[in-house]
Write a structure and sequence with these properties.
By secondary structure, the protein is mainly α. The protein has one domain. 71% of the residues lie in helices and 0% in strands. Helix 2 packs across helix 3. The longest helix is centred in the last third of the chain and has 28 residues. The protein is elongated and about 60 Å long. It starts with a helix and ends in a 7-residue tail after the last helix.
Length: 83
């Protein structure tokens, strides 16, 4: 027999959760993600769940790197706000 049903259920819920979080992201993030998907060449509805999750994962990593770099740059130039 294949995977345990509980493992499949967990994977299913994780995938749904990840996809379900996309609309709650910033417009900047979703626009960039849409650009990555468009560059992929496949219409959104033709992507497998795995393909969509992989594109989102890779884009998230790059997005977070760029955000951290921007924050460091602002701090370097004294543009950060004191909390």
């Amino acid at each position: 027999m294949g995977k345990r049903i509980e493992d499949v259920e967990s994977e299913l819920l994780n995938a749904c959760g990840a996809i379900g979080m996309i609309p709650q992201c910033s417009a900047d993030f979703t626009f960039g993600l849409a650009m990555c998907i468009a560059r992929n060449g496949k219409p959104v509805h033709d992507l497998t769940i795995g393909e969509l999750l992989e594109i989102e994962r890779k884009y998230s990593e790059e997005y977070m790197k760029s955000r951290k770099a921007a924050i460091k740059s602002r701090a370097f130039f004294g543009l950060h706000e004191k909390l």
